[in-house]
Amino acid sequence: MNKCELANSVKSSLDQYFKDLDGEPPHAIYDMVLSCIEKPLLEYVMQHTAGNQSKAAEILDINRNTLRKKLQQYNIE
Question: For a FRET experiment, which of 1, 15, 25, 46 has its CA 20 to 30 Å from that of 65?
Answer without folding.
Answer: 1
